[in-house]
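Hi X.,

You mentioned you wanted examples for the new student's onboarding notes, showing what a folding record looks like when two proteins sit in one file. Here is a clean example. The first protein comes first, with its sequence line followed by its structure tokens.
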Amino acid sequence: MTLSPIISDWFAARNWHPRRHQLEMIDAADEGHHALLVAATGAGKTLAGFLPSLNDLIANPTDGLHTLYISPLKALAVDVRRNLLVPIEQMGLPIRVETRTGDTPSDRKQRQRVKPPHILLTTPESLSLLLSHEDSIFLFSTLKRVIIDEVHAFANGKRGDLLSLSLARLQALSPALQRVALSATVSDPDAYRAWLAPYGDINRVRLVEGDPAAEPDLEILLPQGRVPWAGHSGHHAIPQLIEEIGRNKITLIFCNTRFLAEFIFQKLWDANEPKYAIGIHHGSLSTEARRKIEGAMAEGKLRALVCTASLDLGVDWGDVDCVIQMGAPKGSSRLLQRIGRSNHRMDEPSKAILVPGNRFEYLEAQAAYDAVREGVRDGEAFQPGSFDVLAQHIMGLACAGPFHDADLLLEIQSAFPYSALDAETFNRVIAFIATGGYSLKAYDKFKKLVKRPCGLWHLSHPKFAAQHRFNAGIIVDSPMLDVRFRNGRKLGKVEEGFAATLAPGNCFTFAGMALEVESIKDLDLFVRAATKAANTIPSYMGARLPLTTHLADRVRHMLTDRAGWARFPDEVREWLEMQAYRSQMPTPGQLLVETFPHDKRHYMVIYPFEGWNAHQSLGMLVTRRMESRGLMPMGFVASDYALGVWSLKPITDPEPLFSADILTDEFVEWVESSYLLKRAFREVAVISGLVERQHPGKRKTGRQVTFSTDLIYDVLRKYEPDHLLLDAAWADARTRLTDVGRLRDLLDRAADTMLHVDLERVSPLAVPLLVMIGRESTAQGAVDDELLLEAESLAGVAMTP
């Protein structure tokens, strides 16, 4: 290990010492190894990733690009640059550090390709675009190191597929390149080592683990009244949150959705009698608004910030001394990551407060609390690489120059998600880019590649390079409209579907302000400050945070651990005791099915704990099967914990409704006839480049994109059902939209362990689900009152084993 005296002196001048894992990262670099660093938040992971780069740049100065830092978030890249420049300036090093994201001005992007900085901080999408330029071979020829921060946040999704392919190309351009990944919450280090390594060879990746951090100061906030039956916002705790903000210097308040962030911000502002400076931050706000808030936080001008996953990762504001999680965290790793934003120092405990929205969420919060205390992490499994991402990557490489298919296949197979890609499938992807497929090959707009007699593939026309760069990207949001004042100031974006519900004079809350609609023109929603109350908040159709299998298993075990109920609040413990007395408690591995009459309808409630996606899918399938059996289903409602179905006729034997063969013909028929497959196809069509969202000076509306993709979808379904993108859409529909893996596990459990309990009235465990039905289908409070009265009657029953 050789640490530059300049760096050693910098540590010594501050009475600091390099941590063990930081020195081990330098050792790994000196020995030519790739490395995965797993260390607690506040342990100096980012500095550990950069120390070998600084060390080498001091010993071997260069004018070219030396280190590439990959961040999952724009805000994190900006924050890391700010924090990295401090030690560089203090050491007096002539090292240039710059960011390159979607927010970077185009003139700076152009200059970076000609005169790159020594260290470039970017995102997977921006890196992919850089690789699409002809000069990328020269830009990256000097590259020695790639640092991937917060690798757990995106490695096992489509952004991870894209980055893995980009790493394969960078390794081809600079064979001695060292790959480094950093994380605080990796649950399976070997899986991530395989993803990081060329050809998935984990022996080429050294695992470096940091020392344990101080145990977090974690608590579950109980409301001043009772834990609610239903709801997910936790807004009942607003007065307690105001008090908590007053006790701390800076408080981060995490919400799982942008809608909830806007809602909680407004509730806090309405109750903010002390006039604390409170901000809001989420991904749909404008760059200007986000930068302003980030700057205010860095300068200590805010007492609290309501935010979403836009600030989940790595952002280092050392004065944050409390993190509040509104609603259930959905996973122990996600909770641990958010906790780490508080007291961003390894040797001091991070303070965090969980605010469950309802009684099931209390159990989930307790499960997450226990997992964090035990140091147990969870995470999603890796999936094979997506075809649409592969098509986008290959098109980008074609924009950079001609390629030979055999050579490119070997390069792509070195990327772990595509290590099993065979030549036949690879050729299908090439053929799709070259012609659009059999059904579309008559149209010139889909003919993007041509193979010359020399055997090299070329772009068929230079215009396709510009078209690719305008449209490349992995994140496909729902169609958006820009929210603007008349003076041109942009506040952010709302989804087209929400904007369609508005008319001039309507008021809504956005970016923490009450706004009145003036007009809607093309893709702009013009507003002014409202002079009257605004009761509407934009909703977004982003993916739900899934309940992890690990937390679901913990909740199932908690339900049957009667001795453990003593630590729960009285109302939660009594709720479980009532359930055990009136019905049954679902045991681990068992599927409890309850049937009962209520309000002249017949109900069936099941408790799989497999997450909203799996339950929603099962609800669709079961109601279709009930319809075919004449049971006259009227609807269903799903949560992360349970599924409820109501019908006009009683269900006397639920077992046939849950047979595993429902996943064969009925599942296929349902998906193909539902919006799910078309929605998935729209996304893969956009990602693969089949349909463009933007042209120079013009952007398609969401309706135009949807019309185009629906039209192509119908053509392919009829004339080319084995088209590559239909396969890709099916893969998305199975894994992401319907969670078919957990659905299959659920049905397997039903076949062997179903317990049917027929009741005279609603069970205590079913009340939270039925309250949701009431809120969705009747005047607010009508069904709630009836259900709670029924629950009260249950509470009066003597509790006996």
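Then the second protein repeats the pattern, sequence line and then tokens:
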Amino acid sequence: MNQSSFFNLKSHPDKFLIDHLRNVGLFCKNTIQSKKINSNIFNLNDEILANFSFITGVSHDFGKGTINFQNYINEKDEKRKSSLKNNPETRHGLLSSLFTYFVIKEYLKDLKFEFLPMLGYFAVKKHHGNLGDVTNEILDLDDKNVEILNRQINSLCLEELKLIYLELLPNIDIIKFISTYKSIIKEIKSNRRTFSDHLQNEKSIQGDAPGLQYYLLTQLFYSILLNSDKLDASGIQEIDRNNAIPLDLVDNYRIIKGYDKPKNKMDIIRNEIYSDVIGELKTLSLDNNIYSLNVPTGTGKTLTVLSFSLKLRDKIINERNFMPKIIYSLPFLSIIDQNFEVFEDVFKKVQGYTPTTDILLKHHHLSDIFYETNENVDYDTSESLLLIEGWNSEIIVTTFIQLFHSLISNKNRSLRKFHNIINSIVILDEVQSIPHEYWLLFKEVISLFSKCFNTYFIFVTATQPLIFDESKKEIVELVTNKKYYFNKFDRIELIPNLQPLLLNNFKEIIRSDVEENKDNNFLIVLNTINSSKSVYQYLESLKITGIKLYYLSTNITPCQRIDRINDIRNNKARKIIVSTQLIEAGVDIDVDTVYRDFSTMDSINQVSGRCNRNYSEGKKGLVKLFILKDENKEYYRYIYSPFLIDKTKEVLKEAPERINENYFLTLSNNYFKKIKDSGSDDVSNKILSFVQKLEFEQLYKNFKLIQEDYYKIDVFIELDYFAKAVWNQYKVIKELKNPIERKNEFLKIKKDFYEYVISIPKNKAPKPENETGIAYVSIEELKDRYDLETGFIPGSGGTLLF
């Protein structure tokens, strides 16, 4: 504790208020000054941004200077302390936000951005919670809360607060605040309607689109304040940025692996694409912020885009004088681990060691909670979690959920890393997974974010959605002649069968094909867990010799899925894989024949990328598409939007009966054009209206990157005796009385715990335990509730989806 002889007020049990306010204020100011922000877009300048951030930092805990809060923070008896915490007069957010509003108005009197004090009020008010709708936060200034504020003002430890702010904000008169706070409340309340109208009428810098500038500013200030507050409270020192990643890292890796010496046709094409993309850097203008790498599946996009990003990073350092992070984002957990291992291997092979977490970080809900640097600092679990969730690394491999819910969210935990996306290179791999109803939303947010915050986005896919229009130069293609590469491929043939077929008849077709083509590997992708289990069990009953049979779906535990995917990739035996659509995008497997239950065009294209992926000479893979049905309806109706299915049928009916791979780009373009031309922007426009009006709670309720039409609960599967030990640890942790200790102890086992957790529709799952709140299948119950091959055995009735 950095005690100063005149100060006694505390912000935390082990920290003086003046030290915390000073540290947070400087942390906020240093953070925003370290960013390259086009402040002119906001009609501001860099000095105002820095001063605003400093003010929010040194004002955010002003309300802790009351007698009630000091009694609470110094109380040793836990029972008494809990009672004091629940006293409304102990809370400090609303009083601190009023003070922040006052200070910003005093410091920035001549500011043209008239509602900036309101943003300060809002950010500080919610720095211990999630953002709400901004106008509702003003309504909190009702008679009841004003009476509490009156009592808090009367209980301020005024003499010490005057000394604190004489040092931190020497031009601010606290006595003036105390004498005018009631008029400040009236001013904020009277401005509510004007502010709301102003937000609604604000136009984007891009024309007639909704103005999102206030939204981005709010997220920026809120994120920086959250991060600064949490790191200082935890005592963690700021992590120094690391510029030790060579721009030729991937080039050297490719030499070590022999990729620079092509052995076959596929290698030649991969090298051509790699050279073309890297060659674009010579003439690339950094005034363009949005790029596309749109090439066929299996052509080495992962290494190519990593190499391009490292070189782009170096170019930005030299030409724009800031050092971007690289954020590599993917839609599916099944490929995050796979691609992270590739990145890790690049460092190991070239530099001879595993990169520390400040260089390369994997972040999703199943990740290890362990953070390390080369500075030999030991971070405990809670400190590691703070650093991981703040994306304190140079290269972050993460999910679409983590990324987009940090850009479009109201959640405290998600938004804390918003400022670390600024000035980054953001790679969106398998970008076709973004739901079409969000195209306009993402276009508007990404466009303005990239311009305001000097952030570069790279869309990576074999099937490019029309979020940005290449013909209008909204996005720059990194492969100058992508048609050339799509036309070079003749690996597969797609055969659509558009007449509905019962599942039992489909099984016979598979049996005949497997028996006739004795050297072929097969992948069978179904739309529901029920149909996939039925086909798997049928094939198992045939007892085909010389075959390794695999089953994959979300119905089996994550640890089993990973083990099976690794075995599929490494096992040279003949194989048949039965899966739901989780296998489609990015999973690096190669089979001769794919059977696919009918789905959307982008999904069909993706699963086709698992067929003859490595371009075996002298033969062509087959992708056979069927419309399968049960007694009630087609299986695709359980999964996909009717709108997208209709567009898929339209493009397939317009295509040849047997479709060669060099036609796939045309298929994809036709499909996305039909979606663009006849799709609705209603969902995006609705959410954009919430964004524009700073209605964060409505935004959270309406924006769901993954839509689920039924309620799921988690089920822990006690698959083996290690799982049993993990479950027993979990039960002990749940009994801990101290919530912080309970959280920290769970974080230590979190990764192992979720390796055994699957999500099941509530009406199919066991009843959750009262003690733990999670459903549980014990090792003794496995034979009745969990099949070791096909996974969870549900209750009666209905269709299990993937």
